[in-house]
Each structure stands twice: as C-alpha cells, then as structure tokens.
Amino acid sequence: MRSSGEKRGRLTPPPRTPLAVRDPLLLWRSLAAASVILNLLLQMEPSPVIRLNRAVAVAMQNGPAAGVALIDAINKEGELANYQWVHSTKADLYRRLGRIPEALESYGKALEMSQLGHL
Questions:
Q1: Per-residue confidence of the chain (119 residues) as pLDDT tens digits?
Q2: CA-based R_g, the chain, Å
Q3: What residues contact 53, with CB distance under 8 A and at least 6 apart?
Q4: How far, rounded to the nearest angstrom, does the alpha carbon of residue 80 sit from its chain's CA centroid?
Q5: Which helix (H) or strand (E) holds 6?
Q6: Best CA proximity match to 74, nearest among 50, 43, 106
Q7: d(Cα 31, Cα 54) in Å, to the nearest integer?
C-alpha cells in the first residue's frame, strides 16, 4: 500500500504541503512571471503602485537591498509619501537586511499613515 505522498514509485510531499516545498523552483518561476507581468503593466500604465509591486517581486528574486533601492527611487517622486504600504514594505525589507533602526522608523511611518487613514 502506498502512502498518501507516494506516486508511481516516487515519494512526494503530501498534497497539503505548500507548492513551493513540493516544487522549490515554483516560487522563483512565479516571481519571474510576476516581474514580467508587472513590467508589461508599467509599459501600459506607469503607476507608482505598480512600481512598488515590482519592487517587491525584485526584492524576493534579488534580495531586499534591490527592493529598497527601487522603493527609494519611488519615494524620490513623492507621489506615495503618505501611502502606508510603501513604508511597511520598506520596513520589512530593512528588517530582512538587519537594519533594525531604519525598519523601526519605517514601521512607525506606516503605522502613522494607517492611523491617519492614508491607505
């Protein structure tokens, strides 16, 4: 009798296991596809929010420093200065880099924006 995770002589993780565990390349391929889609969207509709989403995909593929650099470029334009998701995203990337003082500052800005209703 085969276990629930066994298929045709090959052991595989049970079905409830996250896809990224069952297929480690799936997450990378999904992020690569997301980057391509976001690049196409940017060509059709240049938007700082789409650029922020692209920064997240880039950070997940190339590391948090790459994402921070893209978010810094977005912040220079000033359109999303009161957009809490810019600050919370940057805070998480700083946290991943071990830059805790900058992370705390960005988390504080995100919290302030959320309390002021700037979603």
A1: 444 444 455 555 455 544 445 555 566 667 778 878 888 888 888 889 989 988 988 998 899 999 999 999 999 998 998 899 999 999 999 999 999 999 999 999 999 988 886 55
A2: 19
A3: 38
A4: 17
A5: strand 6-7
A6: 50
A7: 10
Q: How far is CA 94 from the centre of its chain?
A: 13
Give 11's strand partners.
Answer: 6
Question: Which H or E run contains 10?
Answer: strand 10-11
Question: Which CA distances in Å does 93 have to 8, 64, 75?
Answer: 42, 5, 15
Q: What's at 33, amino acid-wise?
A: A
Ordered alpha helix ranges (H), 1-119? 19-22, 24-44, 48-62, 64-77, 84-97, 100-115
Cα 16 to Cα 33: distance, rounded to the nearest angstrom: 24
**C-alpha triplet 77, 31, 95: angle, nearest 5°:** 60
**What phi and psi, each to the nearest 5 degrees, are found at residue 79?**
-65, -30
